[in-house]
Design a protein that fits this description.
Elements: E1 39-42, E2 52-55, H1 80-83
Antiparallel strand pairs: 1-2
Length: 86
Amino acid sequence: MGPPGASGPAGEKGERGEKGEAGAPGPQGDPGPACPDGYTLQVPADDPDALVCRRSGAAVPPPAPDPSAVIPVPPPVLRRRDLTPP
């Protein structure tokens, strides 16, 4: 018996099969991370969709200033005479 010959060209792609049935749901996963001792899950005042771990008994932080209350101040205008050395 001689050595095996070279492989031939790939055949044409076949038709797609039918969709199978859905499987059974898997087991429930472990609960999410818990806060360490001395901390509790709390909703921050500025994001009602979030939960954060805060130290139990900590003071409530002051609310952030309203961005519209901060007035931006542009830098002073530089003139050519201000740029020349004395």
